# Entry
Amino acid sequence: MNAIGRSLPRIDALGKVTGVAPYPGDIDVPGQLWMKILFAGRPHARIKAIDTSLAEQHPGVVAIFTAKDIPCNEYGLILFDQPVLCGLGSDKPGADVVRFVGDQVALVVAETEKAASAGRDLIRIEWEDLPIVSDPRQAMQPGVVQILPDVEQNILKHYRVRKGDVDAMWASCAAIVEGVYQTPMQEHAYLQPEAGVAYIDEIGRVTVQVAGQWTHEDQEQIAHALMLPADQVRVIYPAIGGAFGGREDMSIQIVLALAAWKLQRPVKIIWSREESMIGHHKRHAYYIKAKWGADAAGKLVAAECELISDAGPYAYTSPKVLGNATLMSTGPYQIPHVKVDAYTVLTNNVPGGAFRGFGGPQGAFVAELQLEKLAHALGIDPVTMRLQNLMTDDAISSVGTKFPKGVTIDRVVTRCAEEAGWTAAHGLQLTQQPDQPHLRRGRALACAFKNIGFSFGFPERCVATIELRGTTEIEAVILYHAGADVGQGAHTAFVQMAADAVGQPVEKVRLVASDTASSGDSGSASASRLTFMAGNAIRGAANVALKKWKDEERPAIGTYRYVPPVTSALDPETGYCDPNFAYGYVAEVVEVEVDIETGHVRLVDVICANDVGKAINPQQIEGQIEGCVIQAAGYALLENFIMQDGRVLTPHLSNYLIPTVLDIPPRVKSVILEYGDAVGPWGVKGMSEMPYMPLAPAIAAAIHDATGVWIDEFPYTPDRVWKKLRDHARQQTMQPTSTDGNGQ
# Structure
C-alpha cells in the first residue's frame, strides 16, 4: 500500500498547529487541587527540623506532605539512591540530607495555585550546611567528603578498556598528539516545563497524565515508591512538549501520584521555567585527557584516554552514559592499541543524565579532534586520514569485538565529503571567502556512529498489539503501542509501519498510544531505538493478527514481544564486550565564520549525511536532521550553563541562551542514505540522535581552519573565542625569531 518511504503528514500535526492537542499543562480535572514543591535551594545540607505549622494554617491549603509520608522513600532508573522527598521520619537512611539545589523537600497541596505557592513559602527549615563538592576531579581524591555513604571516593562507576599494549607502541609513532578537553553541561530546554495531573480513575487506579519517555518505567517507579501493585498505577502520556532525554528520570510523577492517592482527589502541577532548570538533570560535563599516535602513513597506532564525568549526587543514567562515552572516545576507527579509563563521579551539582546522544557527543568531541590534530601534524588531508582508519565489518573495535555486519561509515564519510566538493587532491574548499578582513572562514568534517537500542547487556524488549476489525474484509486496524512521541514523529511512523505490515491503507489504521492500561511495555523513547524496536514488534503483531484473521477469528488480535540480539556488559578488567546490536553512521561538514575582533562564531553551512537504514518518512527525517543540528549548534556555540559552588547561575532563558531563528545557518543540507540493516524492520536503523554526535568537533576544527587556533573547551561563546585568539597571538609574538649566521 506504499506506506513505507512516503512523506505523509504527521498524524498529530493538525491538533498541534491548531492548539487542540492537549499537553499535560492543558489538562484540567473537575475538583482538582494544585501542588507546589519546596526545593532544597541548597547544594548540600542536613535537615534538622521542618516546621509546616504556618503553611498548614494558610487559607486554601489542604495538605502538606514530607518525607515521612512516602511509603518507600526512594527511586532511580539504575539505582534506588534518591529520596522522593528529603527530610525527617523517612524509611530511607540519609534522606535527611539534601545533595543538590533541586532535591525536593515538601509538597503543598491547596485549592488554588496561588494558595499552594503561598503555603510553600511559609514552611520553615532548620539547616546544617555540609561541605560542597562541585568538581568531579577533586571529588574523587582521597579525603574529600563522601556524598553517598556507599560510594567510595565518590566514584560511582569506573570502566577500563585494555586492548594491545599502548605503552609499548608510542616509540613507533611518527606523530603523537596530546590534548585536554572539557565539554559543558547542557539544559534540555524543551518547550513545556514539567506539568501534569493525577487522579483516581474509574476502576480505582492511581492515574498520572504527564510527559515522559517510558510509560511503564514511570509506572514501575511510582508503584515502587507508593508500595502498590503495578496494575494499580496507570500512566498516560498526552502530547509531549519535547524531551531529548530530559524526561527519562522522575520529576513530578511520583509526587503527583502520592498526593492524589493520599487525598483521593485530582492534583495538578505546572513547573516554572526556573523550577525546570534546577529540578531535572542536565547533559553531563566531561573532563577528558587524550593521547593518540599514528605512523608516518597516517595509520592510527595507539590511543589512550581518561574520561571523568560529573554525575551530580545520584546515579540517574550516569553509568550508561559513561559506557557510550567510553566507546565513542576512540571514535569509529580501527586502533590496534587502546587504553581507556572512564569515571563518573558524584558531586553536589545538578545531576547529569540522559541527553540526546547519551555520552556520544562528549566522546566524539575528543576522538574527532585528536584525529584532526594528528592529520595536521602529519600533513595529511583529514578526510583522507579518516577514510584509511574507519571501522569495517572485519575490524576489531576498542572493546575487542566486531561491529554488527553492515558497517557503512566509510560510504557515509565519502558521500558527505563529496557533497561538500571534497577531493583527495584539494581537500575541503570554502564555499566563499568573506569580504571583510576581520572575518575568517573555515571548513571541516567530522564523523561518528550511534548505537541503536539499549547497550551493554540491558534486557531490550518492545511489545505491540494489533487488532483487525471487520467481517469479510479488514475495515479497521487498531494499533496499541506504549511508545512515546516526544515530538520526533514516532506515532506517524508507527501508523505507516502498521499499514504496511497488514497490507492496508494508512487511513484504516488508528493508534492507541502511550497508556499503560492498553499497551504492553514498549521501552523508552531514547537510544534512537523506537522506530527499530517498534517496527519489529508491529510487524510481529501483524503476522499474528493476520494468521488469526485467516482462521476467521473476529476481531483478530495479535500481540508480539520483540527481543533483539543480546548485548553484553563491559568486562571490568579489559572492557571486552558486544556493546550494541545495531549502529547508525553519520558525517557532517560545517563551515563557520569567525569574527577575530569580537570572537563571534557564525555557523554558515552544514551538510549532514546519515545512514538511516530505511527512511520510513523522509520528510520527518529531514526535520530530525535540521532540529538536531540546531540543538547541537546551541550546545557548541551558545548554551553556557553555569554552576558555582553547587548553585545554578543561569536558571532562566534570559541568561541561558538557546538558538533562535537568527542563529540558524542559511543551509542545512540533509543527505539521507539507506543501507538497510539486516535486523531492523524494513532495514531501519535509527535517526534522531546521529546529527548531534559530530557537530561540535566539526565546528572546533572549522574554527581552527579559519584561525589556526585549537580551542578544546566549548561552548564557543564570543568571550571564550576572543580570549583564546588573543592568547594565541601573544604566544606567537613571544616566539624567538629564527636567524641565519649573520643575525638576519
